[in-house]
Amino acid sequence: MCERRSGINLDTKTIHNNDKLFTLTKDDQHHETILIDTLNDTTVDVNSINETQSKIKLVLDDIRVEPPLTGIFRCSNISARYIIATWAFFGFFCLYSLRVNLSVAIVAMATPQSALNESIQSCLPLNKNSTTPSPKYEFDWSPTLQGFILGAFFYGYITMQILAGNFAEKFGAKWIFGGCVLIAGLLTLLTPLAARTHVGLLIAIRFITGIVCGPGFPSAAALWGNWIPQSERSTIPPAAHSGANVGIIVTAPLVSIMIAEHFLGGWPSAFYVFGVISCLWFCGWCIFGFNSPDQHPRISEKERIFLKQHIKTHIRQNRKTPWKYILRCLPLYGIIMMHVCHSYIYYTLLTSLPTYFATILNFNLHQNGLLSALPYFAQFLVTIIMGPIVDRIRRRNILSITILRKGQAIIGTLGTCSFLIGIAYMGCNQIGAVVCCIIAVGFLGLHTCGPLTSHLDIASNYAGTLMGITNSLAAIPGFIAPYVVGAITNKNQTIEAWRLIFNISAGIGVLGCVAYCILFNGEEQPWNRTPEARQRNESIASIDG
After folding, report:
1. What is the CATH superfamily name and number for domain 80-531?
2. What is the pTM of this model?
3. What local confidence, expressed as pLDDT, does residue 29 receive?
């Protein structure tokens, strides 16, 4: 007879009532329930129904509850998927620290150019008596060359994302994601030597670093498709991705402090410190990172069963990517528009906000480093707070995923764009401008835990490929946005010029939101399922009909 053992192991039991068959089975290989099929028939004995229902409830209770285990490196009080997400968080921290360290360090590396023949309209400094010692510059690079050095990363960043996402789906994301961080860290350790050898070698190092960092987000998306159930997709992936924000928050002020204190020779410390941290992170990822629950040797059996019951995954090594259906998918084009327009705002602020703070608001180096980090701390908080709220609404079926995602897009866009325009019209109100900037970037957190996770909503089995497509296109603003800012402010560093920059960014953000709301639908795409699953669904639909 059927009895409860460790986990949810069930002996096979067959109940006959009026020629109807009820079966509970046990799969010794995977330790999971294969099928419980009940036919709706009023002639079935009530006691038999109650007995079967009690056993079904026993199975479901075991699947939903994940009791703690014990042991060294055992996923005891913390689920395995949370541990992997935590390590991914620090992985994104490393990737973004390696991205932005040069943006801060280059201020102390290259001799600033003369401001003669430029129209500059700046505000009075907050502290007129504050002084910041000037660093010793090693390089005489023109502003144009500096821009090319900084942009080299993004030219490389755009190249490998689609291919990497597709490979991560087929062969696993662990080593692709981990390799990104390790190789980028090693290249970063070589950056000071490259800069002192020849500027061309520095540009090559940054270009290759961009190529290596590109697969980060697509490979992580493939990882989430195997590890994160639908009810947690507004919480766990955005929380892990927010490591990028923390990377910016920590890197900008820390690099400024290390340069000012001449730690490890000044500006080279920006590359040595974060390069070593990235290599150390990889050692931990080798131990705690895994492609899927089936490959994790220390996951609890009940969490493994829980994830297999709630995540629709299939083996894809011998399956072709449905490019025809992907290219015809209208919701994907909505995600693309939202992602690209969101990135334009993001990269405009990431690359140009320190310049605005320095030239217009007249903040010194220390003030600039701290204030440039605060907006991304606000984005981090919004992402962490709103993600669980959205998932709670989703679990309770209060709103459909389509309405939820569009609502996040609308609220996030209106908040961001309104305060972007607010920055433009603050003039020399330095405190007001900084507050508007913090709130504007904070509202971007609604995009991070919403529309930017939509790939998992429509096709979790191909999330790596979809993220590769959208993130590749979203990298284009990484070099377009600084070019637009440079063209507008060239010999024209005025409040009016920056007002135009912020207004353009706000308009692009609204455009992306409108396109997303028109094109996006959060329902799972039919091509995400295996042919066998589609046949089962069609059979069930015909029976129900």
Report:
1. MFS general substrate transporter like domains (1.20.1250.20)
2. 0.71
3. 39
